[in-house]
Amino acid sequence: MLVDTHCHIDLYPDYRGVLARITQGRAATLAMTNAPSVYRNCVELTATNPFVRVAVGLHPQLAAERASELPLLISLIGETPYVGEVGLDFSEADHEVRKTQRRVFEKVLDACRAAGNRVLSVHSRRAAVEVVAMIGSGFPSRVILHWFSGGLSVTEQAVRLGFFFSVNPAMVTSARG
Q: pLDDT per residue over 101-150, tens digit each?
């Protein structure tokens, strides 16, 4: 059985076609959301598909503009065992944006620690060292590092901590992959 640990079903123009292909391929799929406010809609879009589970998230690139949705995100973490897409994205150098991302991610991690037994899909573009350090050891949930591009030492650390890695075709065909 195939497992897709990171799919933004709600962002596809033809999401029904995507859902049909998931069913046809019997691919267990974890549907990510970019903002807590779209979570319930994504649950409705996928409700009849037995292969899809929906994760609640707040994409780090949206954390600054949607920080007001943090209370909703925290409450929804209590309702679903799936959390994503969350994390850090330091492709932008703005100090305040990074500060907000860190604050949001720390609150997400705190909520997941309190809830326990969650599955997190974590974004870490140009922030792998920070993400792995923030999660740390003894985290009571499964961590999947999405499209991870950290260096060897942080990769080894993540492996020692028991983190998982999502891999897609674009990653393994790239020069850096």
A: 999 999 999 999 999 999 999 999 999 999 999 999 999 999 999 989 89
Scanning 49-173, the segments in alpha helix (DSSP H) are 70-77, 95-115, 128-135, 152-160, 169-173
8 Å CB contact between 30 and 120: no
Residue 28: other Cβ atoms inside 10 A: 15
Query: What is the rounded CA–CA span in Å between residue 132 and residue 7?
Result: 22
Cβ neighbours for 136, distance < 8 A, ≥ 6 positions apart: 161
User: How deeply is 153 buried, as exposed, middle or buried, from its count of CB atoms within 10 A (0-12, 13-18, 19+)?
Assistant: exposed
For 55-92, write each residue's pLDDT tens digit. 999 999 999 999 999 999 999 999 999 999 999 999 98
Residues 118/75, Cβ–Cβ less than 8 Å: no
> Are the C-beta atoms of 58 and 70 separated by less than 8 Å?
yes
Phi and psi for 60 in degrees, rounded to 5? -60, -30
The DSSP symbol for 166 reads: -
Q: What is the pTM of this model?
A: 0.94
